[in-house]
Design a protein that fits this description.
Length: 372
């Protein structure tokens, strides 16, 4: 199969769909790989490394789109990219369609088969291709939050870990999944006072055990959530409903009552955000202020640490990319978890949450593939 890799064009997105090591794996399996010139240069993977790994280098992205049978990206295709997709082509990338009706419309019109990293599942029902970026985003959320708590950045002027004789910052994390756990790890390591809220008692027990009681765990009842948020210096939104829009857990009223200069980081912004006042930002302009509260809502947070993120993502995606290259759409029938990643196929929406939210007729993945 001819596998294509283009340079990402989203604002300040430096990650790349395949590393030279991943290209070498595909080449060893007998596949051709076409890489746009300088696709990985921003994260230290130059064209010579790709050539040495067995790739072919082409001058433009349009050549890759026109030739490739399987396109491997990182972020959702931008409108100009969507318009270059064609029927029968496979697209393997993050999509996050629920809050993005334009992208959904364009992918449906393209006739391509679009497989989303974020809805692929493993044998346990977990999200193996979302997990590495969730780990990065969770840790980065604390790093970003700590930076924007600085007075020069519009924050309260609070040091996350405090100093002897001065209390540390209070960090409240809403959601105890992968993002929340990694955020708690980082915040705890920086010396903060950390509280995690979740509605799963088994998960709260696991977190209490994992952190040996050093993190406060609370059931996320409305009154408790309000109390904790109003006392926080930094709030991190870390909730996820796979494939669907994130629930709005903090209202405008919550934000209005928070202390001036406090910071909120919405890691769920790719799925529409979990705060009522959230709107997607970029690394070029990562924050804005509502009612005195600094909002950090960058939609591609891991792009800030693009080399680490690229390597972590490729470690997770490589087996699936190889399966798609080896078997094409038949790989979806061989692996029910990969089948769960199919969001759009041949003009049909095959992800139920997206179809219901955006008003499309839902067609089950196997039915869309013509499998009875």
């Amino acid at each position: 199969m001819l596998v294509g890799v283009t340079k990402e064009i989203k604002n300040h997105e430096y990650r790349v769909g395949l590393t030279p090591q991943a290209v070498a794996e595909l080449a060893a399996a007998g596949h051709r790989v076409l890489v746009e010139r300088a696709a990985g240069s921003a994260v230290g993977f130059d064209d010579h490394q790709y050539l040495a790994a067995g790739a072919e280098i082409t001058a433009t992205a349009s050549e890759v789109f026109a030739s490739a049978e399987l396109l491997v990206k990182v972020k959702e295709p931008q409108p100009d990219e969507c318009r270059q997709l064609r029927p029968g082509q496979l697209l393997f990338t993050y999509l996050h369609l629920a809050p993005d009706p334009l992208q959904t419309e364009l992918l449906v019109k393209s006739g391509a088969s679009c497989i989303a990293y974020e809805t692929v599942t493993d044998a346990r029902g977990a999200l193996p291709l979302l997990a590495p970026m969730s780990e990065v985003a969770g840790r980065l959320a604390v790093q970003a939050g700590a930076h924007h708590l600085e007075k020069a950045q519009g924050g309260r002027g609070v040091l996350l870990g405090g100093v002897p004789g001065v209390a540390p910052a209070k960090v409240v994390i809403i959601g105890g999944g992968v993002v929340g756990t990694q955020a708690a790890t980082m915040a705890l390591g920086m010396g903060a006072d950390v509280t995690v809220l979740d509605r799963s008692l088994p998960r709260l027990r696991e977190l209490d055990s994992e952190f040996a009681g050093r993190v406060t765990t609370l059931y996320s009842a409305q009154a408790t959530l309000t109390e904790q948020v109003l006392a926080a210096d930094l709030v991190i939104g870390a909730v996820l409903i796979p494939g669907a829009a994130a629930p709005k857990l903090l209202t405008r009223q919550h934000i209005a009552q928070m202390r001036e200069g406090s910071v909120v980081v919405d890691v769920a912004i790719d799925q529409g955000g979990c705060f009522e006042t959230s709107k997607a930002t970029t690394h070029a302009e990562p924050t804005y202020v509502v009612d005195g509260v600094v909002h950090y809502c960058v939609a591609n947070m891991p792009g800030a640490v693009a080399r680490t993120a690229t390597q972590a993502l490729n470690n997770a995606t490589m087996p699936y990319t190889l399966a798609l290259a080896n078997h094409g759409l038949a790989a979806l029938q061989r692996d029910p978890g990969l089948l769960n990643g199919l969001n759009v196929h041949a003009g049909a929406v095959t992800q139920q949450a997206v179809a219901e939210l955006l008003g499309y007729h839902y067609l089950a993945p196997l039915q869309a593939l013509g499998v009875s």
